Amino acid sequence: MTGLLIVDDEEGIRRSLKKVFEKEEYAVFQACNGADAVRLVEVERHLIDVVISDFRMPGMDGLETLKAIEKINPEITRIILTGYATMESAIESVNARIDGFLTKPFDNWELKAKVREYHLRRRLKQFVSDQVFTAIQQDKTSLRPRSQRVAILFCDIRGFSNLTRRFSPAELAEILNAYYFSPLDNIIYEKDGTLDKHIGDSIMGIFGAPVSHENNAYRAVCAAIRMQNQIRQGNRDLAERGIALRIGIGISTGEAVVGVFGSVRKKEYTVFGAPVNLASRLERFARSGEIIICTETAAEIMQQVALEKLAPVFLKGIDREVDLFRVKADAGDGGFDSFSVPVDLPPNGYDPPVISAR
């Protein structure tokens, strides 16, 4: 159940809001001023997810209250409710990184919808595209932990340690942000995937959660193809600096547990299970310029994507032989050919994949 704190010096407003949100299965807390609200959050920080505060109150005003609450728990969604809406107050709210701005008098239906939207956006804006976010708004249960069939994508730079030796931290950050993280993250979004996390120079994407489609595996593979094409395109610019980024990608499909996990200090929408471990191993197995996928992924896309079956291998951490496939081409996403690694660009080094073979 979502915990919601109402902060307003007018008892009638608090009572009216409490009635509205209790019907929506919120656990409602109340405070008549900013100081009481801050003390309540200090005690109940694990139970309060959303705070709606009046803008003008005796003592601490709404912005001061919400700023203090953010210091206690930065994960709380913070919303200003006021009957004195001005451009100045709106600008102040934006500068204070307030999640939502509502005005009195309010319509109950609109108020509920806006609070839900602000809370979801707060939790998901770093993970999913706008179109996925819109779909999530229609389903209140989509973020709860559950079993779900998903396709997991891992992408990693080959020869990354060599890059760290060649460039200063500032130069490395500029290169990675402009030519790796930003364009490849956007590709995951464009294919309706969820950006799970960055792990060093590795990117992890989920296709099939929180919003699932019939073609999750295909969208993951299409994203991988576009990623390889994007890297090749970026390397044309980087050639002047003597750099050529190389990436390997692994994709696995299967049942996993998805949902929001974490602590009061850090929560994230993520996934656990065998497909995650396998995708990570496949990414390590992939050579520069390759996309390696598992049998289940191959079964779902072989009518749409050209594949090459590889000899079974034993991967580290997996106690059985694994059948692998290499993605060769897909006419719908740029004619990617995994055997056509650019040779007209200077190499930046290559770290061989870590595998355990028998």
* pLDDT averaged residue by residue: 83
Query: Span from first to last CA?
Result: 50 Å
Query: How would you describe the oligomerization state of the chains in this entry?
Result: single chain
Major β-sheet annotation: 8 strands, mixed
> What percent strand?
25-35%
Helical content band = 25-40%
Task: Sum up the overall morphology in one term.
Answer: elongated
How many β-strand stretches? 15
Supply the number of helical segments. 11
Work out the radius of gyration.
Answer: 24 Å
Order of helix and strand elements from N to C terminus: EHEHEHEHEHHEHHEEHEEHEHEEEE
**Which secondary-structure class do the elements indicate?**
alpha/beta
Low-confidence stretches: 338-358
What's the structural blueprint in terms of helices and strands?
Layout: E1 3-7, H1 11-22, E2 27-31, H2 34-43, E3 50-54, H3 62-72, E4 77-82, H4 87-95, E5 100-103, H5 108-124, H6 130-136, E6 146-158, H7 160-166, H8 169-190, E7 194-199, E8 202-207, H9 216-238, E9 246-262, E10 267-272, H10 274-285, E11 291-294, H11 295-301, E12 306-309, E13 313-314, E14 321-322, E15 324-329
Parallel strand pairs: 1-2, 1-3, 3-4, 4-5, 9-11
Antiparallel strand pairs: 6-8, 6-9, 7-8, 9-10, 11-15, 12-15, 13-14
